[in-house]
Every structure is written in structure tokens, then in C-alpha cells.
């Protein structure tokens, strides 16, 4: 293995962070790793883009137990190939469970184009919706991801296989949750967004929306219904002016800012430990096991 393309989508920075770690871990082992943003593609990809490439890695966040809709659109743009190893690296707020299987229907669809999934793994990061994790946990997970990235690089270079086989129930619930998220969740969420009087009309939200779902109408952004529910516009707004009429519960009160958490030395990465009980017990297991 000499050259891998890492196609990635990241709404709020977690996946971009993990991808950069993976790129570093691969290059340390003399594998060329190109980071390419999925959101820049709107036309079918020229097969020449994969010339000399030994494997393709898709990196993306899990939304309601499935890949973000933009990832599915991107996958449709990939050229058919004779045969090509493929890796899926997902990021998610949860540890294991249905989230783990978020990639399986996409893997099946891409197999028809010649992409053979050989390695599939979820890296747990801070949650960017509904429920805010303590900053100490966000940092602890991000640091654990450094070890995971090293392990992933070693695994894929050595040809280790990690293939997921969901059962019928897992497949069904994953489809159901995803259908609800896309058809009822993301659309409604997009329509529910507005900017308040703090908006200074800087246009950043419109410029950065991966789905081009925001347009500036004079002094205010206008949000459409073609939303991914990625949270980028909300957390990146310099005036914290974007809110939801009716779905505010999905927005973390203090936003989500991984870079800030990593840069703040007063945040200690020690939220979970050997004595942790309850919901977060599995997070400790996850953090100490490089292979989990
Ligand atoms: C709309 C939406 C749905 C999500 N659904 C799930 C989920 O089903 N399981 C999970 O573990 N995390 C879920 N999350 C959390 C994200 O997957 C997680 O925070 C991810 O690392 C964000 O990556 P990003 O910063 O690259 O966008 C969801 C987040 C959003 C915004
Ligand atoms: S990023 Fe925030 S301040 Fe800038 S136009 Fe959008 S809502 Fe207004
Ligand atoms: S409108 Fe906001 S939440 Fe929706 S896709 Fe665009 S940036 Fe993401």
C-alpha cells in the first residue's frame, strides 16, 4: 500500500480532525495520503483521479445511524472501478451500538461499483447535537483518537480486515432512523433556522454551508429545506445569531468547538476512568483499548 485517498466530510470538525490524524499516521509509515473534501464534488469524478491510488478511504460523521446525506451523494459520483479496496472511518458521539453499522448499506451500494470494503471502524468523538459532553470528555476522546489513528494506519497497511455484518434488525432500525432523520429531521431542521438581530450580515454561514442551503437576502441569511443537519452554520457563526424555531433542543447551548477544547490547557482529559459507572463506563473501555 503506497497511496490512499481520504475523501472526507466534516460538519463541525471532528471528522476533519480524525482524518488529519490518520493522514499523519499513514505518512509516518511512508504511505502517501491525500485529504480531499467530499463537498467540493458536484459532478461525476473522472476515473483518472484514482490512477495510481491503491485504496480509497471514506471518512464521515454518523447522522441517525447512517452516513450524512452528502456522503451518499458523493458516493454516487465515484467512478466505477475494476476493483479497489475501500475503508470506512466514521466518527460518532456514541460508543458501539447501531452507530457501528452506519456504513453497511453504503458499502453494499459501492460494492456494485467495484469498491471492496475491507476495513470499517467508528471513532468516538464529542457529541455535536442534543447532548453536550463535558469538555474533559471531548478532549479525552480526541486524545484517544490519536492512538486509534495509529492503530487504523497499522491495520490497513498490514491488510487486516475489519468487516461488519449487521443482522436484519440492525439493518432495519438503521434504515428507519435514517429515513426519519433525512425526510423529517434534516428538512424540518433547515426550515426551522433563522438568524436573530445579532447577525451582522457577514455571509459566512452562506459561504460555508456544504449544501448551499443558505442565501443572503439583504441583511439576513435565508435558510432552505435542503439541510444536512450538520450544525456547521450554527456553531461557526461569529455572532451566535442562528437559532431554530421549534428544534432548538438539537443545538448545544454553548455550541461545539473542538479546536477551543484542544487549545485550552485548563481542560484536563480525565472525565472517565476506571471507577466510572453508568452510561459513560463504556467510554472508559473505549478510550483505553486501542483496538475498540
Ligand atoms: C443530525 C445528527 C445526527 C447524529 N446522529 C448520531 C448517531 O446516530 N449516533 C451517534 O453516535 N452520533 C450521532 N451524531 C453525532 C455526530 O456523529 C458526531 O458528533 C460526529 O463526530 C460529528 O462529526 P463532524 O464534527 O465531523 O461533523 C449526530 C450528529 C448530528 C448533527
Ligand atoms: S454567519 Fe452569523 S452573523 Fe454572519 S451572516 Fe450568518 S448568521 Fe449572520
Ligand atoms: S443550513 Fe446549516 S446545518 Fe444545514 S447544511 Fe447548511 S450549514 Fe449545515
Any overview of this molecule?
The protein is built from 9 helices and 10 strands. It is α/β, with parallel strands linked by helices. It has 2 domains: 3-166, Rossmann fold (3-Layer(aba) Sandwich), CATH 3.40.50; 188-256, Alpha-Beta Plaits (2-Layer Sandwich). The strands form 3 sheets. Strands 1, 2, 3, 4, 5 and 6 form a 6-stranded mixed β-sheet that branches. It is globular. The chain starts with a strand and ends with a helix. The relative contact order is 0.15. The model has no long low-confidence stretch (mean pLDDT 94). The structure holds flavin mononucleotide and iron/sulfur cluster (2 copies).
Q: What secondary-structure arrangement, pairings included, does this model have?
A:
Blueprint: E1 3-8, H1 14-28, E2 32-37, E3 55-63, E4 66-67, H2 69-77, E5 84-92, H3 104-111, E6 115-124, H4 135-158, H5 168-192, E7 193-195, H6 204-208, E8 214-217, E9 220-223, H7 232-236, E10 242-244, H8 258-263, H9 281-288
Parallel strand pairs: 1-2, 1-3, 3-5, 5-6
Antiparallel strand pairs: 3-4, 7-10, 8-9
Helix pairs in contact: 1-4, 4-9
Bound molecules: flavin mononucleotide and iron/sulfur cluster (2 copies).
Amino acid at each position: 500500500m503506497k497511496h490512499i485517498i481520504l475523501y472526507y466530510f466534516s460538519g463541525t470538525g471532528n471528522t476533519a480532525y480524525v482524518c488529519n490524524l490518520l493522514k499523519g499516521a499513514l505518512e509516518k509509515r511512508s504511505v502517501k495520503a491525500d485529504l480531499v473534501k467530499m463537498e467540493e464534488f458536484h459532478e461525476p469524478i473522472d476515473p483518472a483521479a484514482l490512477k495510481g491510488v491503491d485504496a480509497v478511504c471514506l471518512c464521515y460523521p454518523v447522522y441517525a445511524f447512517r452516513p450524512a446525506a452528502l456522503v451518499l451523494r458523493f458516493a454516487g459520483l465515484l467512478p466505477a472501478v475494476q476493483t479497489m479496496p475501500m475503508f470506512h472511518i466514521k466518527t460518532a458521539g456514541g460508543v458501539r451500538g447501531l452507530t457501528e453499522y452506519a456504513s453497511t448499506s453504503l458499502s453494499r451500494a459501492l460494492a456494485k461499483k467495484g469498491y471492496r470494503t475491507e476495513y470499517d471502524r467508528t471513532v468516538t468523538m464529542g457529541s455535536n447535537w442534543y447532548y453536550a459532553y463535558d469538555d474533559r470528555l471531548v478532549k479525552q476522546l480526541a486524545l484517544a483518537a490519536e492512538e486509534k489513528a495509529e492503530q487504523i494506519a497499522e491495520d490497513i497497511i498490514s491488510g487486516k480486515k475489519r468487516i461488519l455484518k449487521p443482522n436484519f434488525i440492525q439493518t432495519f432500525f438503521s434504515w428507519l432512523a435514517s429515513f426519519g432523520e433525512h425526510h423529517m429531521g434534516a428538512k424540518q431542521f433547515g426550515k426551522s433556522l433563522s438568524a436573530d438581530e445579532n447577525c451582522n450580515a457577514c455571509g459566512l454561514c452562506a459561504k460555508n454551508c456544504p449544501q448551499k442551503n443558505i442565501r443572503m437576502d439583504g441583511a439576513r441569511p435565508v435558510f432552505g429545506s435542503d439541510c444536512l443537519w450538520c450544525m456547521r452554520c450554527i456553531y461557526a457563526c461569529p455572532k451566535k445569531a442562528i437559532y431554530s424555531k421549534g428544534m432548538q433542543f438539537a443545538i448545544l447551548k454553548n455550541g461545539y468547538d473542538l479546536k477551543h477544547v484542544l487549545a485550552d490547557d485548563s481542560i484536563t482529559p480525565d472525565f472517565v476512568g476506571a471507577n466510572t459507572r453508568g452510561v459513560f463506563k463504556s467510554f472508559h473501555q473505549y478510550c483505553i483499548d486501542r483496538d475498540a
